[in-house]
Amino acid sequence: MIIETHTPQETFDIGKKLGERAIQGEVYCLNGDLGTGKTVLAQGFADGLGIREPVSSPTFTIIQQHDGGRLPLYHFDVYRIGDISEMDEIGYEDCFYGEGVCLVEWPELIAELLPEYAVSIRIEKDMEKGFDYRRILICRPHDSERERKGAV
Ligand code: ADP
Ligand code: MG
Questions:
Q1: By alpha-carbon position, which residue is closest to atom 6 of ligand 1?
Q2: Structural domains of the chain ordered from first start
Q3: Nearest residue (CA) to ligand 1, atom 5
Q4: Distance (Å, rounded) from C-alpha 46 to C-alpha 59?
Q5: How many secondary structure helices (H) and strands (E) does the chain include?
Q6: Which terminus of the chain, N or C, has less C-beta within 10 A?
Q7: Cα–Cα dist 79/70, whole Å
Q8: Which ligand 1 atom is nearest residue 77's CA?
């Protein structure tokens, strides 16, 4: 699925729809260069889950957990990870295979740890279409958590 947005609010709203539909155990990968809108989409996603506390890039903590919504949200930003073993120290498995739903910014840095059913979201700019234009590609693998759990 490809969606085009022209404002940060539109990207937030895409995230919000995804958050409203998210189910326990899903992992969403947020791909895209710095400043494309991964965190904007994550903020919408949290809003869609009913999380009311502020969501920012958890760059210095690698992971930020947000409770108070329909499901716990584990928001990873692994941009500054030094070594993949840091993920074990963080206890990522309790998040990926836990009670909540995961968002991962810079997933390519921990590719070998991602479950094969992870949903891929890629945000791209296209300067020819304007400074605030974004193309958002959402790819659900065939054997996604949704199908396995019978969700639509
Ligand atoms: P990332 O997490 O990918 O590094 P951020 O979400 O922190 O990026 O920042 C994206 C920036 O791009 C914000 O300043 C936002 O206002 C701006 N922006 C402009 N147009 C859009 C759009 N269509 N969608 C998302 N963000 C946009
Ligand atoms: Mg970010």
A1: 37
A2: 2-144 (3.40.50.300)
A3: 37
A4: 17
A5: 5, 7
A6: C
A7: 27
A8: 2
